[in-house]
Amino acid sequence: MERFFAKIGNYVIAGLSNAGHGTMLLRAIFRETPHIWKMRREVLVQMHVVLIGSMPLVIVTSVFVGAVTAVQAVYQMQALVPMKFLGVMISKTVFIELGPVLMALVVGSRLCAFYAAELGTMKVTEQLDAMNIMAIDPVRYLAMPRFWASVLMIPVVTIFADAVAVFGGYTISVMTLDISSGVFIEGLQLFYKHSDILGGLIKSVVFGGIIALSGIFNGFHTQGGAEGVGHSTMTAVVASCLSVLVADYFLAIILFQIIFQK
Amino acid sequence: MKVEYNIPPPPDQKVADPTAFSGIVIEGVSKSFGPKQVLTETDLLINKGETLVVIGRSGEGKSVLLKHIVRLLEPDAGRIWVEGEEISEMEMSELMEMRKKFGFLFQGAALFDSMNVCKNVGLMLEEHSGWSMDKIKDRACECLALVGLTDSDDKLPSELSGGMKKRAALARAIVMEPEYILYDEPTTGLDPITGDAINDLIIKLQKELGVTSIIVTHDMASAFKVADRMAMLSRGKIVFTGTVDEVRNTDHPMVRQFIEGNSQGPLGAF
Ligand SMILES: Nc1ncnc2c1ncn2[C@@H]1O[C@H](COP(=O)(O)OP(=O)(O)O)[C@@H](O)[C@H]1O
Ligand SMILES: [Mg+2]
Asked: Sheet holding B77-82: strands in order across?
């Protein structure tokens, strides 16, 4: 029993110390951000990685998310809620919650694993040491461009995914659920608020930061060889997903219970 | 039967005032990784302009020692001065300036595998010299020619053999004409002819540019050829230093065993 608590205590301490080191990395990234113009090529390369590479994943995920939301909504509404509310149900769920969170989990994991494995391999093959020796700061050269690429592009991907998901919901509704195109589109405009999309965007900006930070941090702190890279990649993805979900809860409170609640 | 060896005490490698010493002073440095003690209060002096060869069996901590000199690793105890400045007290920016004086050849080459060879070699100039791209490319090619890699400049590191990687990494280490070059096993994995060409290059850099070199190696032929002075690392300490002739004629049992490649002796076989 004591062992059990000692173990939990150790996890908590390790977690807090990692959070501390993560904050230090974040500060270092912000400190190096003024050099972003000089590093613009690397930023563009990394943005390309987020955007273009993940398109098939984004499209397939979003179409099906929209479709499932439509099917489920129709089932739950049954005869209780008029079908003209279908559009608004789908769009609100997708904009506020499903779009940002699923993209952070799906595209985010992909990106986080990529960062952790790439930087982790550089760490264990001494490429990071080599960079330090050459008086080139790995935070400026590697971390900062990746961080901003993620913070900028995850929201872009999310917006795109929102649109595709709503389109998926629309297509399924019209084609298989006996709902007329006009009713669906009318429903979309019902209760539409800018703050829904804005809230979702703010979420995905934060998620973009979490994803990048987790991947970069775990990559930079990789120990050992191939196994170490595997381990830190795994840790990075798990930490990223958990942090996204926890952050989602707090963001929901801050955004939709405090800021947008007039 | 257990043989008793008469092992002399470690050499005196201390200076009275490290801040007035123009080379590198390593004083009382200890380092352990978890339970494994790698360096134990070891001292070493590196004089400006000399070529010091550090010998020792694999796993003794030679690479670890080299990394301490440029603060890639921080000692658990002890201090290191470079040109009279204690490196553990340097700010990040001072450390970066100090590091620009160093070239470091990693044991595993450590080329950036996302960049081609030419870009690897030129990167430091791109960052620090302010030169035009053409000039950087010329200088990179010049350094690659010095190590005998004339037509591989647009290859990726993954397309090179182990020995070619090592040579490309050497070109990268010398591109800024550093005052100090730390070589971690420069000739390991090279064929004997290329290896000897690298020895000649090391000597040439010292003669022509006055470079201070620290070379970690097991290759005794190379060691005897390039060294001004040799030091032996064993069980976490520098146990012997001496000139090439002193090494050849010493009766220090550990050094004798090492240079003769004998499995019997104070170092043990495994
Ligand atoms: N980053 C590290 N983490 C843990 N142990 C290390 C690390 N670097 C070196 N060691 C250990 O230190 C010892 C000395 O390593 P090294 O300096 O590479 O030996 P060598 O003399 O062959 O260059 C080895 O036993 C190695 O396991
Ligand atoms: Mg080594």
From this structure: B36-46, B24-33, B77-82, B85-86
Contacts of A90 by beta carbon, 8 Å cutoff, 6+ apart: A66, A69, A70, A73, A165, A166, A169, A173
In tens, the pLDDT along B181-239 reads 999 999 988 888 888 988 998 998 888 888 999 999 988 989 999 999 999 999 899 99
**ipTM score:** 0.90
The verdict on pTM exceeding 0.95 is: no
Residue type, B138: D
pLDDT at A18: 78
Mutate to test the pocket of ligand 1, among B33, B40, B72 (most ligand atoms within 8 A of CB): B33
Domain residues of chain B, as ranges?
1-98+216-262
Amino acid symbol at A217:
F
How many other β-carbons are positioned within 10 Å of the β-carbon of residue A51?
Answer: 18
User: How near does any CA of chain A get to the CA of B74, in Å?
Assistant: 13
Contacts of B223 (CB under 8 A, 6+ apart): B53, B55, B215, B217, B230
What's the CA gap between B249 and B243, in Å, rounded?
Answer: 10
Confidence of residue B2 (pLDDT cuts 50, 70, 90): low
Atom 6, ligand 1: residue with shortest CA distance:
B33
Torsion sign over Cα A201, A207, A208, A209: positive
CATH code that applies to domain B1-98+216-262? 3.40.50.300
